[in-house]
Design a protein that fits this description.
Elements: H1 2-29, H2 48-67, H3 78-82, H4 106-123, H5 129-158, E1 191-192, E2 196-200, E3 216-220, E4 223-225, H6 232-240, H7 252-261, E5 269-272, E6 275-280, E7 283-286, H8 298-307, H9 315-322, E8 353-359, E9 385-389, E10 405-407, E11 416-417, E12 421-423
Parallel strand pairs: 8-11
Antiparallel strand pairs: 1-4, 2-3, 4-12, 5-6, 6-7, 8-9, 9-10
Helix pairs in contact: 1-5, 2-4, 2-5, 7-8
Length: about 425
């Protein structure tokens, strides 16, 4: 009886978290019309409707289809539409053409979600442990897609010349604004970090993605980590000093990227008569010099660090510093709304993901998860860089010190920013 009670308690907890995550996805998409949810702003992004369906496909495929013999697929042809990159699941619709899927409708996708949710909750208590672990993975997978959905919604609405707001402007956060015409000093690294042989990575029983394992030793040289994120005000100083025009500050690939794209400011910034404006999910607003800079690429982060006489941290330096912090703190996603970085926050988690100088590579002894879900991370360990922390669009409780976000160095539609480091 005690074992059964423990199993029921665990089932209830997993069911509650499953339902909460599924509800948040729908809340995020609530302001969208069918047209809003169908458009795809660029090849790296996906329509909101596709995110809603793909996360449902994940549960239907890897849990219900494979572990609930009585389950029947909601619409067999939809697996072709909503598989993302799993080669083990066969052919799929081309990623750059997801925005061409006017059918199924948004309403039909919501029906798909309801069908799968009902079926999964009905069998959850009877699922074997391996299937329950896949439900856990699916919950964390959907949280990733919640942030992606917000990123992609922002990218889509930024293409509209009317710059429409998806949600009303968030209430301002009290913070000290610098005097008119004065920008704050650059946040040079100030906090000496741990040095010597340390351990990083996930080694305990808590949930983690396979890329976070195994726990292993690394050597840290003497260094210091900035105690604040780089702000818009500091970035404006970089721009005023010709940061986007000085080849000596840039990696060769970064300089080619700047020239090819005529990049002269962070993504979603636009020059106005009386200064710079930034588009967000709350519409077009003046750039607030107090806010952490956001939507910058690795190339930009690296160039800024060189201009500031510093460098980007390694992922090991960042992780060791963050191990003593509560990853649930900071400006993170609690409910659907106009997420954006906020001034006046400190700590390593929240507001923006922080670029590191570390390539996204396997840890010593890395083994991908068994089965098709093993394609989740391992095959992307080439040409990308690690970001640490969490952003204003990261569901609270999703991240941890060992978490490894990753993007290509030119990408910047994610909520990415900068924390500086330097050698001692």
């Amino acid at each position: 009886m005690a074992t059964q009670a423990k199993l029921s308690s665990a089932t209830d907890n997993l069911a509650a978290r499953f339902e909460a995550v599924r509800a948040l996805s729908r809340d995020i998409a609530a302001p969208l019309s069918d047209a809003d949810a169908t458009i795809q702003p660029h090849a790296d992004a996906s329509p909101a409707k596709w995110h809603l369906a793909h996360t449902t496909w994940f549960f239907e495929t890897f849990v219900l289809r494979d572990h609930a013999p009585e389950y029947r697929l909601h619409a067999p042809g939809w697996a072709y539409l909503f598989n993302s990159y799993y080669e083990g699941e066969g052919e799929r619709h081309a990623r750059p053409r997801r925005g061409m899927l006017s059918r199924p409708s948004l309403e039909e996708v919501y029906g798909y979600r309801c069908h799968v949710d009902t079926a999964l909750l009905d069998v959850l208590e009877r699922l074997p442990e391996a299937a329950r672990e896949l439900v856990e993975l699916g919950v964390h997978h959907e949280q990733q897609h919640q942030e992606l959905m917000l990123m992609d919604m922002l990218a889509a609405f930024s293409e509209n010349p009317l710059f429409p707001a998806v949600w009303p402007k968030a209430a301002p956060v009290a913070a000290n604004r610098p005097p008119s015409g004065q920008q704050p000093e650059t946040h040079l690294p100030a906090e000496p970090g741990v040095s010597g042989v340390v351990e990083i990575g996930q080694g305990g029983p808590e949930f983690s993605f396979d890329a976070e394992r195994p726990r292993h030793e690394v050597l840290l040289r003497p260094h210091a980590l900035a105690n604040e994120l780089v702000t818009n005000g500091e970035w404006l100083r970089f721009m005023d000093d010709g940061g986007y025009r000085r080849a000596e500050l840039w990696l060769a690939d970064g300089w080619a990227w700047v020239q090819a794209g005529r990049v002269d400011a962070p993504l979603y910034w636009r020059a106005a008569e009386d200064g710079w404006e930034r588009f967000g999910l709350d519409g077009l607003r003046p750039v607030d010099p107090r806010e952490p800079v956001c939507h910058v690429s690795y190339y930009e982060a690296d160039a800024f660090a060189r201009w500031a006489g510093a460098r980007l941290p390694t992922e090991a330096e960042w992780e060791v510093a963050a191990a003593k912090e509560d990853p649930r703190c900071g400006n993170q996603l609690d409910a659907a709304g106009a997420v954006r970085p906020q001034p006046g926050h400190s700590g390593l988690f929240g507001d923006v993901w922080q670029w590191t100088m570390s390539a996204f590579l396997p840890y010593p002894g890395f083994r991908p998860a068994e089965g098709t879900v093993g394609e989740y991370n391992g095959k992307f360990m080439c040409g990308q860089f690690v970001l640490k922390g969490a952003s204003c669009a990261t569901p609270r409780g999703h991240s941890r010190a060992s978490y490894r976000n990753f993007f290509y160095p030119h990408q910047r539609w994610q909520f990415s920013g900068v924390r500086l480091a330097r050698d001692l």
